[in-house]
Prior knowledge:
Elements: E1 5-6, E2 8-18, E3 32-38, E4 45-52, E5 58-60, E6 74-81, E7 86-91, H1 97-106, H2 109-112, E8 113-117, E9 123-126, E10 132-134, E11 138-145, E12 151-154, H3 164-170, E13 183-186, E14 189-194, E15 199-205, E16 210-213, E17 217-225, E18 228-230, E19 233-235, E20 240-243, E21 249-253, E22 257-264
Antiparallel strand pairs: 1-20, 2-3, 3-4, 4-11, 5-12, 6-9, 6-11, 7-8, 7-10, 13-14, 14-15, 15-22, 16-21, 17-20, 17-22, 18-19, 18-21
Amino acid sequence: MSDPVLLTPSLREKVWGKTRLAPWFPDSETPIGEAWFISEQELPLLVKLIFTSERLSVQVHPDDGEAGPRGKTEMWHILAAERDAFIALGFREVITHERLLEAARSGEIEKLLNWFRVKPGQTYFVPAHTVHAIGAGIVLCEIQQNCDVTYRLWDYGRPREIHVDQAVPISELAFHRGVAPTFPMGPGRELLVNCKHFHTEMVKFSQGSTVVCRPKNCDLWICLEGYGTISGHAFHPGEVWHVPDDEALSIRAMSASRLIRTYVPD
């Protein structure tokens, strides 16, 4: 029998990041854009917290088999957002690949994207091939296939490599619906996203409640609020726990708590 494993947060400096990281981490002297939660063994899923003070590049990710065995489908759950915070997903109207190529080279792509105003508690599903960008003033939890291949279409003039030759041919040009609908799954459980790569739920606990369940493949629990124990190990906000699939899972909440659970479907 194996104990749950607390994943290690690896803080990544980014020009578009933030120095204020509370309540997730201590504030930083340098701008932190991403916290990757790392395991000693490679897992098929990767959890990140993303902190933005500027827009991220307009980008797209490949699907399975296009740049290696694993592609990069992802989802975002908004944790905090300033009043005029936006993300971009897909385009306002259907365009051609030829126009996308021209717009990526000129910067017009910013105006063609479909920008959605975001607020805390929303979830967005971003399949591979979706052209997207995360705006400024946002903190979000990203759950993704464990792949780091990104093709940039536009980066607002910042001196970083652009990959239009790789990005344009794989870009989906259709309309994106925006906020993902959620579905109740029973008391305290809400389905956020279900796809072939990950099944993700929001699980809410009242103070003193206990839940026992069967662990899944790459079963990850992300604590957003509250504290308690996972199979006897104390959890706190900003932590990600990996529960091995060889033992029953018991969660006890010492306070009202919210956790995201994500795993690879059977």
